[in-house]
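<goal> How does this chain fold?
<body> The protein record starts here
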Amino acid sequence: MSSRKLKLPSSKLALAVVCLVVLSLLGCGYHFAGTGGQAPGDIKSIAVDVLQNNTAEIGLESVFTNAILNEFIRWKRLPIKPRKQADGVLGGSIAKIQIREVSHVDSDKTLTSRVTITLKLTLKRVETDEILWKKDYSYYEEYVETGNSLDTALLRRQATNKIAEYLAEKIYIDMFEEF
Protein backbone atom coordinates (compact mmCIF):
# COMPACT_ATOMS: atom_id res chain seq x y z
CA MET A 1 0.00 0.00 0.00
CA SER A 2 1.48 3.29 -1.01
CA SER A 3 0.70 6.55 0.63
CA ARG A 4 0.85 9.72 -1.34
CA LYS A 5 1.79 12.95 0.36
CA LEU A 6 0.94 16.33 -0.99
CA LYS A 7 4.18 18.20 -1.38
CA LEU A 8 4.23 21.92 -1.86
CA PRO A 9 7.44 23.85 -2.00
CA SER A 10 7.95 25.48 1.40
CA SER A 11 7.59 29.02 0.01
CA LYS A 12 4.21 28.18 -1.55
CA LEU A 13 3.04 26.55 1.66
CA ALA A 14 4.11 29.56 3.70
CA LEU A 15 2.33 31.89 1.29
CA ALA A 16 -0.84 29.79 1.48
CA VAL A 17 -0.79 29.87 5.29
CA VAL A 18 -0.23 33.63 5.35
CA CYS A 19 -3.10 34.17 2.89
CA LEU A 20 -5.44 32.03 4.98
CA VAL A 21 -4.54 33.91 8.17
CA VAL A 22 -4.98 37.32 6.51
CA LEU A 23 -8.32 36.34 4.99
CA SER A 24 -9.60 34.97 8.29
CA LEU A 25 -8.58 38.15 10.12
CA LEU A 26 -10.24 40.35 7.55
CA GLY A 27 -13.39 38.27 7.68
CA CYS A 28 -13.81 38.74 11.42
CA GLY A 29 -13.46 42.53 11.24
CA TYR A 30 -10.00 42.55 12.82
CA HIS A 31 -7.86 45.61 12.20
CA PHE A 32 -4.80 47.17 13.70
CA ALA A 33 -5.39 49.80 16.39
CA GLY A 34 -5.99 53.23 14.89
CA THR A 35 -6.74 51.90 11.42
CA GLY A 36 -10.40 50.99 11.88
CA GLY A 37 -13.52 53.06 12.07
CA GLN A 38 -14.23 56.57 10.91
CA ALA A 39 -13.20 59.87 12.37
CA PRO A 40 -15.88 61.38 14.62
CA GLY A 41 -18.52 63.26 12.64
CA ASP A 42 -17.00 61.80 9.47
CA ILE A 43 -14.53 64.69 9.32
CA LYS A 44 -11.94 64.51 6.55
CA SER A 45 -9.32 66.92 7.93
CA ILE A 46 -8.30 68.28 11.31
CA ALA A 47 -6.69 71.32 12.88
CA VAL A 48 -4.93 70.99 16.22
CA ASP A 49 -5.08 73.99 18.55
CA VAL A 50 -2.26 74.64 20.99
CA LEU A 51 -3.45 73.14 24.26
CA GLN A 52 -4.07 75.53 27.14
CA ASN A 53 -1.65 74.98 29.99
CA ASN A 54 -3.58 75.22 33.27
CA THR A 55 -0.53 74.17 35.29
CA ALA A 56 2.47 76.01 36.67
CA GLU A 57 4.82 73.84 34.57
CA ILE A 58 6.22 76.03 31.79
CA GLY A 59 6.24 74.64 28.24
CA LEU A 60 3.86 71.70 28.63
CA GLU A 61 1.53 73.14 26.00
CA SER A 62 4.25 72.85 23.34
CA VAL A 63 5.29 69.33 24.37
CA PHE A 64 1.75 67.92 24.28
CA THR A 65 0.52 69.83 21.22
CA ASN A 66 3.59 68.75 19.23
CA ALA A 67 3.21 65.12 20.32
CA ILE A 68 -0.42 65.10 19.14
CA LEU A 69 0.47 66.77 15.85
CA ASN A 70 3.31 64.31 15.27
CA GLU A 71 0.99 61.35 15.85
CA PHE A 72 -1.51 62.57 13.23
CA ILE A 73 1.28 63.40 10.80
CA ARG A 74 2.89 59.99 11.33
CA TRP A 75 -0.27 58.05 10.44
CA LYS A 76 -1.36 60.38 7.60
CA ARG A 77 -4.94 59.19 7.94
CA LEU A 78 -6.52 62.53 8.73
CA PRO A 79 -4.76 65.48 7.09
CA ILE A 80 -3.66 68.37 9.32
CA LYS A 81 -4.87 71.71 7.97
CA PRO A 82 -5.17 75.29 9.21
CA ARG A 83 -8.31 75.86 11.27
CA LYS A 84 -10.17 77.75 8.51
CA GLN A 85 -9.61 74.89 6.04
CA ALA A 86 -10.22 71.94 8.39
CA ASP A 87 -13.47 70.07 9.04
CA GLY A 88 -12.71 69.59 12.75
CA VAL A 89 -10.50 71.14 15.39
CA LEU A 90 -8.94 69.24 18.27
CA GLY A 91 -8.26 71.34 21.33
CA GLY A 92 -8.42 71.42 25.07
CA SER A 93 -6.14 71.80 28.03
CA ILE A 94 -3.47 70.32 30.19
CA ALA A 95 -5.76 70.36 33.19
CA LYS A 96 -3.48 69.14 35.94
CA ILE A 97 0.01 67.99 36.83
CA GLN A 98 0.74 66.12 40.04
CA ILE A 99 4.16 65.20 41.38
CA ARG A 100 4.25 62.70 44.20
CA GLU A 101 7.05 60.93 45.98
CA VAL A 102 6.96 57.19 45.32
CA SER A 103 9.93 55.69 47.13
CA HIS A 104 12.49 56.87 49.65
CA VAL A 105 16.07 56.03 50.52
CA ASP A 106 15.34 57.14 54.06
CA SER A 107 12.82 59.43 55.74
CA ASP A 108 14.53 62.57 54.40
CA LYS A 109 15.60 61.51 50.90
CA THR A 110 13.28 60.67 47.99
CA LEU A 111 14.49 58.05 45.54
CA THR A 112 11.74 58.21 42.88
CA SER A 113 8.85 60.51 42.13
CA ARG A 114 5.82 60.12 39.90
CA VAL A 115 4.53 62.81 37.56
CA THR A 116 0.88 62.46 36.53
CA ILE A 117 -0.60 64.65 33.81
CA THR A 118 -4.29 65.04 32.98
CA LEU A 119 -5.61 66.32 29.64
CA LYS A 120 -9.14 67.41 28.74
CA LEU A 121 -9.77 67.30 24.99
CA THR A 122 -12.60 68.02 22.57
CA LEU A 123 -12.99 67.68 18.85
CA LYS A 124 -15.40 70.22 17.39
CA ARG A 125 -16.80 70.67 13.92
CA VAL A 126 -15.31 73.92 12.62
CA GLU A 127 -18.45 75.18 10.85
CA THR A 128 -20.93 74.68 13.70
CA ASP A 129 -18.75 74.37 16.84
CA GLU A 130 -20.62 71.09 17.53
CA ILE A 131 -18.72 68.79 19.90
CA LEU A 132 -18.02 65.54 18.02
CA TRP A 133 -15.78 63.87 20.57
CA LYS A 134 -14.76 64.61 24.13
CA LYS A 135 -12.43 62.74 26.44
CA ASP A 136 -10.20 63.15 29.47
CA TYR A 137 -6.84 61.43 29.71
CA SER A 138 -4.46 60.87 32.57
CA TYR A 139 -1.16 59.03 32.63
CA TYR A 140 1.98 58.91 34.75
CA GLU A 141 5.69 58.14 34.59
CA GLU A 142 8.23 57.79 37.35
CA TYR A 143 11.68 59.35 37.46
CA VAL A 144 14.69 59.26 39.77
CA GLU A 145 15.40 62.07 42.21
CA THR A 146 19.17 62.44 41.83
CA GLY A 147 19.84 65.02 44.52
CA ASN A 148 20.99 67.40 41.78
CA SER A 149 18.13 69.73 40.84
CA LEU A 150 19.26 70.13 37.20
CA ASP A 151 19.55 66.37 36.65
CA THR A 152 16.21 65.74 38.36
CA ALA A 153 14.53 68.44 36.25
CA LEU A 154 15.90 66.80 33.09
CA LEU A 155 14.64 63.37 34.21
CA ARG A 156 11.21 64.83 35.00
CA ARG A 157 11.11 66.48 31.56
CA GLN A 158 11.98 63.13 29.94
CA ALA A 159 9.16 61.49 31.91
CA THR A 160 6.80 64.25 30.74
CA ASN A 161 7.85 63.66 27.12
CA LYS A 162 7.09 59.94 27.49
CA ILE A 163 3.65 60.79 28.85
CA ALA A 164 3.04 63.12 25.91
CA GLU A 165 4.04 60.47 23.37
CA TYR A 166 1.94 57.78 25.04
CA LEU A 167 -1.15 59.98 25.34
CA ALA A 168 -0.82 61.27 21.76
CA GLU A 169 -0.89 57.70 20.48
CA LYS A 170 -3.84 56.85 22.76
CA ILE A 171 -5.75 59.94 21.59
CA TYR A 172 -5.22 59.05 17.95
CA ILE A 173 -6.29 55.43 18.44
CA ASP A 174 -9.32 56.33 20.58
CA MET A 175 -10.51 58.91 18.09
CA PHE A 176 -10.83 56.27 15.37
CA GLU A 177 -11.71 53.21 17.43
CA GLU A 178 -14.74 54.73 19.13
CA PHE A 179 -16.49 55.46 15.87
